[in-house]
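Data availability (excerpt). The following record was deposited with the supplementary files.
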Amino acid sequence: MKRVIYLLCFLAFCYGCKSQQPISVANDKLCKIEYSKYGGMLGFKETLTLTQDSILYTSLIGRTHKREEGFEKTPAAIWEKLDSSADILQLDSLKSGESRLPHDGKDTKYIISLCSGKKYLLINVEDSNAFKKMNSFFTTIIEIKNNIKKTEK
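Predicted structure:
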């Protein structure tokens, strides 16, 4: 009889743990994407923040204090393209590269936030195979940045 009670308690415990697990990775959606490039001899920094509602771009050249800013609404088609091309399994396999800052280089950083609360911090990942497999996703981010820079000039 004790074994049956222990077995029932164990099964109840396992069921309780399973119900606390996060939503499946396959069903997870993008909530926020942050792209930034920084470094170099002039103290350059640019940041692009994308959400389903808005796009915010800022850049600053440290020595000259030249600043650019841009803000606009995110088109639904663009956000859908980003969300559909973000492969969570590929994001898990991406590894950050080495910093280029010690040689007056510029580092590129991506912070990809999912609605489940999981975040991916990726620095200088351009040379990895997983990056190349997600080329459409990262190319779309760069295109958005370039388009918003053109509209601000």
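Summary of structural features: The longest strand covers residues 30-39.
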